[in-house]
């Protein structure tokens, strides 16, 4: 048992941080300079880690609570974090929207909310093709700032090992600033009177949302009146980090043993997740994830079947430990009713603890004019609504959401209270990969989730 009451996961005798090297692997960069890659990984493997094992254990405990329906998890951030966006304004705005959303959820769901950012390391992206062609020229695909750069030139697309150290640096800068903001003066952001709520008037649920914001404000004033302190300083607002642990050489260099704890921790992030593209049972990524102590996310889409899910759970959590597995379903609003229930039945028959989390973004991506990728707010909301209903009907609990969002006023997803149209997409479209909810749409979605949950409670 560790000090939280959870047992460390049993370490398989045949596992090592690099035992994945004997397995089939996809979605990796091919580095032209193998010597420089080795030197860089050696350097990375002696640098301080980005998170600690205590924090990882704490998060596992919180996920265990969420698995029991006692907590909700909000996971959000960029699709692809970039080095250029490692700026104080962008980091602060992203933290602000996540914090404000979490207060809406806390207040509306009457449960503690754990905040996990898709940040401080979300620099590697899986791609549908290894190459990209434009006007007869073919270059390596952009694989995230950890690997190469998005401009369409041979130099930019060349995988560069130096980026591994830059990613570690930028992650460290981000996490350092996040911790300082959270520990320091973030209290003002608790108060809805400081939030930008001008969009609320444009919503069909304006009255409900206005009442929600007022009631959050009143509760905070009440807490402050009785405690004599600003609500923001009452309790440290924890933030955990997450990313897709795709680049296994990078992840291995940060996977360590620490004094007084059993096993190996991936200390590049608190909560690594595995995408379905790299989750076949004979693949390197499954081997890597099998041996780390962290709680792990597994993305499951319409292509997941019962047998595969069963094997994933048996391999990644053979002892059915609490707090270990988060299943992040990303089915699409038109497919969730067909694909999710059989998978829930599979998990129920295994009697293994999982946290069910909805990613309503990745199954609802559309390509519109000029090849621009977008997502409609209505579909995103629709998938969350269906997910809540399915879990309620099957006796399981939707314990979290996984969102792509930013604190900036981008125009990448259509719809929402201001009803952004396809024509608006040209105005402020800055993502390098997938379209994100902007500040207003993200806050609106948090309020919509509260509204969906409270009407589903009324029905039950
Ligand atoms: C992502 O989360 O950015 C992503 C690539 O998701 P998925 O693997 O679910 O498509
Ligand atoms: Co994405």
Helix percentage range = 25-40%
Radius of gyration: 21 Å
Q: State the end-to-end CA separation.
A: 38 Å
Q: Which ligands accompany this protein? A: phosphoenolpyruvate, cobalt (II) ion
Structural class: alpha/beta
Query: Could you name the CATH topology?
Result: TIM Barrel
Average pLDDT figure: 94
Spatial order of the strands in the main sheet?
A: 1-2-5-8-9-10-11-14
**Helices and strands, in N-to-C order?**
HHEHEEEHHHEHEEEHEHEHEEEHEH
Largest sheet: 8 strands, parallel, barrel
Describe this structure in words.
- This protein has 460 residues and is of the alpha/beta class.
- The protein has one domain: Aldolase class I (TIM Barrel, Alpha-Beta Barrel).
- Helix content is 38%, strand content 13%.
- It contains 12 helices and 14 strands.
- The strands form 4 sheets. An 8-stranded parallel β-barrel has the order 1-2-5-8-9-10-11-14, surrounded by 5 helices.
- Strand 8, helix 8 (284-290) and strand 9 (296-300) form a beta-alpha-beta unit.
- The two termini are 38 Å apart.
- The model has no long low-confidence stretch (mean pLDDT 94).
- Bound molecules: phosphoenolpyruvate and cobalt (II) ion.
- Residues 79, 126, 275-276, 299, 330, 362, 434 line the site of phosphoenolpyruvate.
């Amino acid at each position: 048992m560790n000090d939280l009451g959870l047992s460390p996961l049993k370490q398989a005798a045949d596992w090592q941080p690099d035992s994945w090297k004997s397995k089939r692997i996809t979605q990796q960069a091919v580095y032209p300079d193998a010597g420089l890659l080795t030197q860089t990984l050696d350097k990375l493997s002696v640098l301080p880690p980005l998170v600690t094992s205590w924090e990882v254990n704490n998060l596992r405990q919180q996920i265990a609570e969420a698995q029991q329906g006692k907590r909700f998890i909000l996971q959000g951030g960029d699709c692809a974090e970039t080095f250029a966006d490692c700026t104080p304004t962008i980091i602060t705005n992203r933290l602000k929207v996540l914090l404000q959303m979490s207060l809406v959820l806390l207040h509306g769901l009457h449960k503690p909310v754990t905040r996990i950012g898709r940040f401080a390391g979300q620099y590697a992206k899986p791609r549908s093709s290894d190459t990209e062609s434009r006007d007869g020229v073919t270059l390596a695909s952009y694989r995230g700032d950890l690997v190469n750069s998005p401009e369409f030139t041979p130099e930019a697309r060349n995988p560069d090992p130096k980026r591994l150290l830059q990613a570690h640096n930028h992650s460290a800068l981000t996490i350092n600033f996040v911790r300082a903001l959270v520990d320091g003066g973030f209290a003002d952001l608790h108060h809805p009177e400081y939030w930008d709520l001008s969009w609320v008037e444009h919503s069909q649920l304006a009255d409900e949302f206005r009442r929600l914001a007022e009631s959050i404000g009143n509760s905070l004033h009440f807490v402050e009146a009785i405690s004599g302190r600003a609500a923001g300083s009452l309790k440290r607002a924890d933030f955990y980090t997450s990313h897709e642990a795709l680049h296994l050489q990078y992840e291995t260099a940060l996977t360590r043993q620490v004094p007084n704890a059993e096993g190996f921790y991936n200390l590049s992030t608190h909560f690594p997740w595995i995408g379905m593209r790299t989750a076949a049972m004979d693949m390197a990524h499954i081997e890597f994830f099998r041996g780390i102590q962290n709680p792990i996310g597994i993305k499951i889409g319409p292509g997941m079947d019962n047998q595969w899910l069963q094997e994933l759970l048996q391999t990644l959590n053979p002892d059915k430990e609490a707090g270990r597995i988060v299943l992040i379903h990303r089915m699409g609003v038109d497919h969730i009713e067909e694909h999710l229930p059989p998978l829930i039945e599979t998990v129920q028959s295994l009697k293994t603890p999982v946290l069910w989390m909805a990613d309503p973004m990745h199954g609802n991506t559309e390509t519109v004019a000029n090849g621009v990728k977008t997502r409609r707010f209505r579909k995103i909301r629709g998938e969350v609504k269906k997910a809540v209903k399915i879990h309620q009907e099957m006796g399981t609990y939707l314990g979290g959401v996984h969102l792509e969002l930013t604190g900036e006023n981008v125009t990448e997803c259509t719809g929402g209270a201001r009803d952004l149209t396809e024509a608006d997409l040209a105005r402020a479209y800055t993502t390098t990969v997938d379209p994100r909810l902007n500040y207003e749409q993200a806050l609106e979605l948090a309020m919509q989730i509260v509204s969906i949950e409270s009407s589903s409670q009324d029905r039950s």
